[in-house]
Amino acid sequence: MNSFIHDPPFTGTAKSSARKISLTPGFDRARVPADHRRDLNPILPSTQLQLLRIPEHFHYQLYSQLDNCAESLTIRIWTFSYKGQHINKLQVPPDQLQKLIKYNTECRQKSGAPMPMIMAAVQGKFDDDPALKTHFFCLGKKIGFMDKDGNFDREFIKEQMSQLVKDDDKIEEVLNKCLIQLDSPEETAFQSIKCMSDNRKTVLP
């Protein structure tokens, strides 16, 4: 795992004929390993990745989906725009970011889920694939919103959501809709994440 390289903040934008990336000033840049650049090439041109030197966890926007329901959100780091559309506000303490990067790496090794598939899920396109379901279940256990049998820790999830969403009725609405036990832990994790993704506009500011 590459450590972050603290350079002066990037303050501009990078453009290609197909895509545009905009970043707010004030974040530290980090190099993206070559293998991750290859994984991400279907999503972003490698020339942009090399220019921006965006941190690995920045691309792993899956974290934002999980963080919004089950992880401490306390420090806004940056806002990311893709094709001009705001899709992510990441407010994760640096120590938690390191944990999430570690968890994602460990779960990818176990599940074999390819990064483009994970990225597609982050953007709301969920493949009904066993590897992706195993990956989500693995992350759910490590983050703490599920146990090894696929049971949700509802109070933990609610507590973490309440740090971002102040409307208890909205939180309860989403939890009642999305925290449903299904036939397997993997299917339960997959459908809960998909449901939260589909309903994020209901609760997120």
TrEMBL record:
<protein>
    <submittedName>
        <fullName>B1 protein-like</fullName>
    </submittedName>
</protein>
<comment type="function">
    <text>May be a carrier protein for lipids.</text>
</comment>
<keyword id="KW-0325">Glycoprotein</keyword>
<dbReference type="GO" id="GO:0007608">
    <property type="term" value="P:sensory perception of smell"/>
</dbReference>
<keyword id="KW-0732">Signal</keyword>
<dbReference type="GO" id="GO:0005615">
    <property type="term" value="C:extracellular space"/>
</dbReference>
<comment type="similarity">
    <text>Belongs to the PBP/GOBP family.</text>
</comment>
<dbReference type="InterPro" id="IPR006170">
    <property type="entry name" value="PBP/GOBP"/>
</dbReference>
<dbReference type="Pfam" id="PF01395">
    <property type="entry name" value="PBP_GOBP"/>
</dbReference>
<dbReference type="GO" id="GO:0005549">
    <property type="term" value="F:odorant binding"/>
</dbReference>
<dbReference type="InterPro" id="IPR036728">
    <property type="entry name" value="PBP_GOBP_sf"/>
</dbReference>
<keyword id="KW-0964">Secreted</keyword>
